[in-house]
Amino acid sequence: MKRFTPGLAIALCVWAGAAPLPQSTSGHREGPHPAIVEKLRDIIKLRQSMVVANVKAEQGGKGESDGRFEIALAEARLQLAQELGDPGSEIAALNDILKTQKHQLKSAETRMNFGAISGVEVDDRRAQILETEIRILRAQQRVRLAE
Known about the structure:
mainly alpha; disordered N terminus
């Protein structure tokens, strides 16, 4: 009998995360949960105001330029798009995440060249980009399958 390994556990988690959304008995996806949609919209408003505040702080030399606020906003938009079953908005949010991650990579490479960070941190940025690209490909595949 085979043992349950950590690799198998990870594979099961990935597979479960890629599972289709629940279907009603008529074969159509159940509608979005109104309370979840409302909370996600509230999160988006908060995240948008945080991005604006950070941009103002950056102009004053005190903000964060690491993209964390932009990625958090895009992730919230992604969750709303998924809840609403809007693949176009889902792909757009993922592309926003990818754009910010590419900027983070460029910044990390510059800092590495000056010895401020290690190559491991740059590789982590590269891995994050690849993971987001996979998420985009999966979203695009779901759109094609739904057509």
